[in-house]
Amino acid sequence: MIERVVINVMIQSFNFARIPHIIFGAGKLRELYKIFPKFGNNILIAVGGSSLKRYGKWDEIISILEDKSINFFSISVSSEPSPALIDECAQEFRSKNIDLVVGIGGGSVTDAGKAISAMIPKPDSIKNYLEGIGNKTHDGKKIPYIAIPTTSGTGSEATKNAVISEVGPNGFKKSLRHDNLIPNVAIIDPELMISCPTSITAACGMDAFTQLLEAYVSPKGNPITDALAFSGMEYISRNIIPACSSGASNIEVRTSMAYGALMSGITLANAGLGVVHGLASSIGGEFKIPHGVVCGTLLAEATKMNIKVLEEQGPAGKRALKKHAEIGALLIDDKLKGEGQIDKYCSVLIETLDSWTQILKLDTLGKFGIEKDDVDKIVENAGLKNNPVSLSKENIKNIVMNRI
Q1: Are residues 147 and 202 in the same domain?
Q2: How does strand 145-149 pair with strand 100-105?
Q3: What is the pLDDT of residue 353?
Q4: What local confidence, expressed as pLDDT, does residue 50 receive?
Q5: DSSP per residue over 321-372, as a string?
Q6: Residue 7 has pLDDT above 60, yes or no
Q7: Are residues 188 and 205 in the same domain?
């Protein structure tokens, strides 16, 4: 008789944040028109740059709203939202009796809509409520909010924070955060992403993969976030190159990227992020550079440094090294079969991320005016967040220097 041996692994305690009502799939934008009546007849819509309008979707939305006699206002968000933009919009629409805010666009639009819905009920500036900037705590009262992403990147459609940036010498990139600010509904329609330009698809895709990887190796990870992050990485890793080349118009490719981005939002909200996003916060406050570009261009170097320092730790770094190796094995459709393969698959992970950086032609930081003299200040303001290993300032400096 063969006895089955069961090895119990202790599952640590964890919390898991709620998620929005998710409506996912090609053509699901039309569900929006069924949802409107549940909230009211006075709608504020935040939209992004030109792609929604260029490909006729905006005209389609307007036509349907007019046919249904829905009263709506619209604002355009062309860059990462600033306190001035949020304050201006909140002030303008406080007297309009808005029943619902809808954000249709990339991560900046999603965050802007989230912040506006939160600040319309408040009489003062959003600066007073930003983490590390203001001295007030938001109470969660908001106008209901629907998030509709048109890029596969930040996963903000599934999170409780809106990232607000004030760029300049004393700039910052900080969050407005409350459990209630999670969108009421997230509609993820990959058809809206087909028109996304290659450079934006690449940066957003790498941002999503960074969030998935950092959540997977985070000390705060748990079995749920691990499963979701691993699933998201599987879909993005197989589709990020096609999405930026021959598969750009393939709805299956775009659906896979959208799914991965959604998983990245859910997992980052529960497991946290690492040094790449610690640097992105510091860099984004000082320089006008897209968030996805920062994350994408730093990911390979940061992963390389994390693995190096983990290896130096010996047995203490083994668990986190194993998780990095599991990602490496995933990238070549394999599975880690023992500790003897950890070095092999960590190398595969680094080589693959280096390859993506080249194939996707990710911009260096220097293209956006960042010079060697700026690095010390960037490092000084950067945080490790939930990085799998503690890095010295010199370690972090090397990550940045290698991408200038």
Answers
A1: no
A2: parallel
A3: 98
A4: 66
A5: HHHHHHHHHHHTT----SGGGHHHHHHHHHHHHHHHHHHTTPPPGGGGT--G
A6: no
A7: no
DSSP strands (E only) in 25-122? 42-47, 71-76, 100-105
**1: pLDDT strictly greater than 60:** no
DSSP secondary structure string for all residues of 287-315: S---HHHHHHHHHHHHHHHHHHHHHHTGG
What's CA 210's distance to the chain center, in Å? 9
Reported as a pLDDT band with limits 50, 70 and 90, residue 6 is: very low
Give the pLDDT of residue 51. Answer: 67
In total, the chain counts a number of residues equal to 404
Does residue 72 fall inside a structural domain? yes
Answer with the one of 193, 217, 244 that is the final residue of a domain.
193
Report helix, strand or coil for 100. Answer: strand
Q: Helix 251-271 to helix 198-217 angle, to the nearest 10 degrees?
A: 40
Q: What is the arrangement of strands in the sheet containing 100-105, beginning at the earlier edge strand?
A: 21-24, 185-188, 145-149, 100-105, 42-47, 71-76
In degrees rounded to 5, what are phi and psi of residue 187?
-105, 115
Can you spell out the DSSP letters for 107-173? HHHHHHHHHHHHHTT-SS-GGGGSTTT-S---------EEEEESSSS--GGG-SEEEEEE-STT-EE
Tens-digit pLDDT profile for residues 196-249? 999 999 999 999 999 999 999 999 999 999 999 999 999 999 999 999 999 999
- Domain range holding 115? 21-193
- Of the candidate ranges 216-220, 296-300, 334-338, the one whose mean pLDDT is the lowest: 334-338
- Of the candidates 298, 263, 268, 272, the residue with the CA atom closest to the CA atom of residue 284: 298
User: Which of 16, 25, 9 has the alpha carbon at shortest distance from 259?
Assistant: 25
Q: Is residue 11 part of a domain?
A: no
| 72 in the same domain as 36 | yes
Token pair belonging to 375: 């690095």
Q: Which residue bears the tokens 């010295």?
A: 392
Tokens of 303: 């992963």
What letter represents residue 86's amino acid? Answer: I
d(Cα 147, Cα 152) in Å, to the nearest integer?
A: 13
Q: Residue 151 in contact with residue 193, Cβ under 8 Å? A: yes
Q: What percent of the chain has pLDDT over 90?
A: 87
* Residue 327 placed within a domain: yes
Residues 270 and 202 in one domain: yes
Among 147, 169, 193, give the residue marking a domain's end.
193
Taking only the tens place, the pLDDT of each residue in 361-392 is: 999 999 999 999 999 999 999 999 999 999 99
Q: 391 and 310 share a domain? A: yes
Task: Count other Cβ atoms within 10 Å, centred on residue 382.
Answer: 23
Strands 42-47 and 100-105: parallel
